Amino acid sequence: MTDSTSSNGEDKDPDIELFVKAGSDGESIGNCPFSQRLFMILWLKGVVFNVTTVDLKRKPADLHNLAPGTHPPFLTFNGEVKTDINKIEEFLEEVLAPPKYPKLAAKQRDSNTAGNDIFAKFSAYIKNTKPEANAGLEKVLAKALWKLDNYLNTPLPDEIDADSAEDEKASNRKFLDGDDLTLADCNLLPKLHIVKIVAKKYRNYEIPTEMTGVWRYLQNAYTRDEFTNTCAADKEIELAYMDVAKRLSK
Known about the structure:
Layout: E1 16-21, H1 33-45, E2 50-54, H2 61-66, E3 74-77, E4 80-82, H3 85-95, H4 118-127, H5 131-153, H6 183-203, H7 212-221, H8 225-228, H9 234-240
Parallel strand pairs: 1-2
Antiparallel strand pairs: 1-3, 3-4
């Protein structure tokens, strides 16, 4: 690890540059939940960093030399290139630590796995071309969303009053692990947002309003700059799935 303490004893931020997928114009933020995941983590850490959007159609030679064979996202940390997303997350949580930077790990282990099957179920649903399979795949996706909804509406241990004789009411927390965004949210929210946008556009499927936990979760995310300012525009997300979302052939 490179020491980021200057000679006069004052801490200075490490030199961090994040490279994310560019949108269709080659400059704006493109559709990539993994890029947004790292973007959100760095924003939440409160560290100073630079972001470069990479146009995959015209990847500059200097970037090709920096991380040959690697697609965004990747980052440089004090000049060292890091490309494995999960390892980057672990590394940032370790080196950007309290007291200067907040800890972002979820307290509850289940928060890390809540909703982790939704994106795979969505991918199967959106890539399907057989009309007779559509209803079944939609049902499987809805089941995964209901499971997440149940987790979001079930009180966490620290929401339960052990001294109260009353039955616990449903949770009204903002995010997976409480009222603060954690690493678990940085992973799930970008994917969940894509599911919402793409399923509506190409399958006319809307997340049911009865899923009060899921909708509360999304609406709370939309009030946070850490999410909205790191997210691709809806049109970019729709465009990215234009060829992926197979038409249901008759």
